[in-house]
Design brief:
Rossmann fold, alpha/beta, 13 helices, single chain
Length: 297
Amino acid sequence: MTVGVLGLGKMGSRIALKLSKSGHRVIAWNRGPKDISGLEISKNIENLISKLPRPKVLWLMLPAGEATQGVLDQLEPYLEKGDIVVDGGNAYFKDTERRFGHFKPMGIEYLGIGISGGILAEGSGYPLMAGGSKEAYEYIIPLLDSLAKPKGGHKFFGEGGAGHFIKMAHNGIEYGMMQSLAEGFEVLEKSDYKFDLVKVAEVFQKGTVISGFLMDRLAESLKNSPDLKMMEGPVSESGEARWTIEEAKNKGINIRIIEDSLRYRLQTQKQKELHRAFSTKVLNALRNAFGGHEIGK
């Protein structure tokens, strides 16, 4: 297939390259100057659009909110009936619902796809959570299959913001799991036994109940730096846990663990003494390992 990818950040550039290496023609554009070997880069949106066959397939990998909306506003005059727009960013599901409703009367097929796996999924395969236009989902299955190889996968969950709703809940769960690992390893780090945390993490990887993706990332981080000294600083939050909490409150659901995990991150942004806490360093190490996130960003 031919696809236009808009946004060449950590995730967007990897998605574009994986599609290109899979045999698809990728025409890319970025808000700022960016030259990535192996990608055909357009100087502006109009130039990108001119190179796409109909129906045009446009895949956005942009920061949620104003950045995504701004590019959608630029794209809209060029869109025609049958064209497909995919938002692969971490959009708020209500924004995706609104955009789906905005484009549907025009005959423009809109998809909101939640993407997990971080910067490592380029090699292992992306898990993709799709919502919006089912027709568009079925049309771009060749792209999704390529992104999912070798061990990822994709599913369609319903119209509107369904895909981004699932990714929102996923990230809320992620916050709680990360916080639990961070707190548990701080207990271990402060123990009078003076444990070798690398060895602890390695044995936790061997089929324990808490083994898995996050434990693997923590083990890697500890091997690189057992005291995680370079991971001191505030822990950022990107919105998904907030949205999960808001939705839970609307439904009368108690999600105390996710609330507490978000509260801790917010506290690290206000209380400098928490920057040196081992829990804080573990959280920053995990975010850096799977997402390439810098401390405080």
